[in-house]
Predict the structure.
Amino acid sequence: VEPLAGGKVHVHFAEPQRAVTPGQSVVFYAGDTVVGGGIIEKAIRKEAAE
């Protein structure tokens, strides 16, 4: 998770994820504890980011 301006984050996955879609929720855990989350604004495929 990379912090961005305005309280936003850029989430990088180690493995490709299927069907990441704007409007979905994302939740961050440390073990069993929820440490953050938000609503996905846009999905960027790895090929598009390179």
